[in-house]
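Kindly go through the following sequence and its backbone structure tokens. Advise at your convenience whether the structure tokens fit the sequence:

___
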Amino acid sequence: MKVLVIDDSNTIRRSAEIFLKQGGHEVVLAEDGFDALAKVNDYAPDLIFCDILMPRLDGYQTCAIIKRNAKFASVPVVMLSSKDGVFDKARGRMVGSQEYLTKPFTKDQLLQTVKQFGAKEGVM
């Protein structure tokens, strides 16, 4: 699967990249929402992990913009946050995210999430 990881933390991007590549996935990294929008268009990922708290364009705004584009509306978006709040999860669902992963995540949690969406999409 081709996975886009959007996070302003270099550490989170790098660890997600390592875990996903170990799981056999192709990885594209973006450091903020604007960077991500260009990469979604260029790489057409199968799954997107999107941090909530980012400068300039936050994760909710980024997800909403991606979901408004008919070409990418069906691409699953998983919100990433260090907060595990009910409000954050609800707000994520309102903008179109399918899942929520709390940081820091483990390799198993990340790969399990990818597997969950790969099975739904028929991609592995």
User: Anything to note?
Assistant: The two ends are 6 Å apart (CA to CA). The beta strands are 2-6, 26-30, 47-51, 77-81, 99-102. Helices lie at 10-22, 33-43, 59-68, 86-94, 107-121. The first helix runs from residue 10 to 22.
